[in-house]
């Protein structure tokens, strides 16, 4: 998927690291995670980005957080979040084209399997 690199301002083709991508897709397809919307995690429900956080940080508290961004995690902690930078949001989903696409898919009811297929083909 092409998106603007925040450091250079140029359009670039971005891809997830292979190992992370494989783990994330497998987790989304596993049926282990109950799908929800609006938050990375709300009770026992997750959005697709919450699943990404959970596989990277199994014990991290992500309850009621909206994005993998500075507003929710803070400046120092966001740098330690071990998810690829291409799925870290800004303060709103619209600041990152990939985050925006994934959150819209999730929150409009696309299944985790459909989202996993999208990630597999495009990221």
Explain what this protein looks like in three dimensions.
It is a single chain. This protein has 123 residues and is mainly alpha-helical. It has one domain (16-122). Helix content is 41%, strand content 10%. It has 6 helices and 5 strands. The chain has helices at 18-29, 48-56, 70-73, 75-78, 97-107, 112-122; strands at 2-4, 11-13, 34-35, 41-42, 45-46. It has a 3-stranded mixed β-sheet. A hairpin with a 6-residue loop joins strand 1 and strand 2 (11-13). Helix 1 runs antiparallel to helix 6. It is globular. The model has no long low-confidence stretch (mean pLDDT 87).
Features:
single chain; 123 residues; mainly alpha; 3-stranded mixed β-sheet; two-stranded antiparallel ribbon; 6 helices; globular
The total number of structural domains is: 1
Helix content: 40-55%
Apparent shape: globular
Widest sheet, order of strands: 3-5-4
Q: Largest sheet at a glance?
A: 3 strands, mixed
Distance between the termini: 6 Å
The quaternary organization reads as single chain
Find the structural class using helix and strand composition: mainly alpha
pLDDT under 50 segments (min length 5)?
A: none
Q: What is the residue-averaged pLDDT?
A: 87
Radius of gyration: 13 Å
SSE order: EEHEEEHHHHH
Strand content: 5-15%
